[in-house]
Specification:
Elements: H1 2-32, H2 49-77, H3 81-105
């Protein structure tokens, strides 16, 4: 029972870190993005803030997964295989969810 609680806490902390990073980027984008920044009296021009938001989230996700992979290797070396396999499972499941979402969007 104690081992299961340790694994769940490990995964909840990792998911919380990812949600916190996404939340901070969203708040930054929400309070700093102005679609009418380049509008003037003669024209109505919008800037594409959604693309920048996507790129930031994509880069944060890639760095998070890289950190998760490095931590997984470190946990294997430290002989904490249960936590390492929890990281591997989280990585595989989240990437499968993204792949299914991308498949359904096409």
């Amino acid at each position: 029972m104690n081992n299961t609680r340790k694994i769940i806490l490990h995964l909840v902390i990792r998911i919380g870190i990812l949600v916190l990073l996404f939340g901070l980027v969203f708040l930054f984008w929400h309070f700093t993005y102005d679609p009418h920044k380049y509008c003037d009296e003669t024209g109505h021009r919008h800037v594409d803030g959604g693309l920048g938001f996507f790129v930031l989230i994509f880069l944060i996700t890639q760095m998070f997964y890289l950190g998760l992979l490095i931590e997984m290797i470190y946990l294997f070396v430290k002989k904490q295989r249960n936590l390492a396999f929890a990281n591997l499972g989280f990585l595989i499941i989240s990437l499968c969810i993204v792949a299914i979402y991308m498949f359904l969007m096409n």
